[in-house]
Amino acid sequence: MLRFGPASGPVAVVTLPLFEEANRVRALAVAICRALARRGVGSLLPDVPGQGESLVPLEQCGIGDFSDGIADAIKLERADGRRCYGVSIRSGALLDTTAALDGRWQLAPQDGASVLRGLKRIKQAAARAGTVLGDRWYLDTDAPIEIAGNRIAPGLLTDLSRRIPWTAADGGFVRTVRLATDPMPADRRVPGAPLWRRAEPDSDPALATLLADDIADWITTCGG
Amino acid sequence: MLPDDYDQIDSTVRATLRDVLGLSEARAAELRAETPLFGAMPELDSMAVAGLLTEIEERLGILIEDDEVDGEMLETYGSLVRFAAAKAPR
Q1: A166 CA: distance to closest CA in chain B (Å)
Q2: ipTM of the complex, rounded to two decimals
Q3: Domain map of chain A by residue range?
């Protein structure tokens, strides 16, 4: 778990996207956390079971384990009397839905069906020529499905297909920020490239600063 | 399709290639209809193709079926733009 900025006051809890995209946006997330610290806002990048340095094999994890990991990290902060704000990137917005948050800020959130479609396409890309994955590509097996080096339980994929990000209708403060190239509904659009698509992890200091300013201002309007 | 629409799709596909593959502005600007893509551009491996197609889908609001993806569609920059233009709502 990485911690940035002051040890009191509101804290931004950053949730990275699932699987490969987590590696691709980690540098961006850390740059956002450092920029928040310069603005006097504390932040936290919690470890999630089955990902990063976790000792639990990914294939033994479900979405519930990921969201419990996030929720547990937030409980500890709340016990210290800090107000907690979710900052999620991409499919990270599917993982902070059970946490006790005062508000949720989302960068380019996507629903589980869309994540699953992307995973199927990656799996298809690695399949032998002539092999076409059908609609039930993960449904007729109990064995983990290997996608780009990640071994994923079929049950996780089934669960993923039903997950949707938290919305304002679910309660609390919600703010959605998207890249200018993304036509989905958003509260604000910002210039920048989708680093979560890059095969080689990259960062974007200008984008990180812009996003951190947006997050810090939003936390203030939420009363944090 | 109106020429303006085709130009719009060309610039969207060009910007998507630049963003997904991390190409410089200069390299993106140099893409011509006959520029070979898959097999010729080292950044464009099969994993990158998966991300590229998904990003093109999102930006153009189209749906690409996996059985439509073949070597011909990705042979040149021009063939990719033509494929996207044929899919785009008019």
Answers
A1: 20
A2: 0.85
A3: 2-111+163-218
Task: Pick the residue of B55, B66, B70, B74 with the most A CBs within 10 A to test the interface with A by mutation.
Answer: B66
Domain ranges for chain B: 3-87
CB contact under 8 A, A121 and B50: yes
Question: What is the CATH code of the structural domain delimited by B3-87?
Answer: 1.10.1200.10
pLDDT digits (tens, 9 = 90+) for A32-49: 999 999 999 999 999 888
Q: Does A90 touch chain B (CB under 8 A)?
A: no
Contact B47 A126 (CB under 8 A): yes
Q: Closest-CA residue in chain B for A134?
A: B66
First to last CA, chain B: 7
Q: Do the bridges between strand A150-152 and strand A173-179 make them parallel or antiparallel, or are there none, so unpaired?
A: unpaired
- Coil, strand or helix at A85: strand
pLDDT along chain B (90 residues), means of 10: 80 95 94 94 88 92 85 92 88
A59 vs A64: CA distance, rounded Å: 13
Q: What percent of chain A has a predicted confidence (pLDDT) above 70?
A: 99
Domain A2-111+163-218 classification at class level: alpha beta
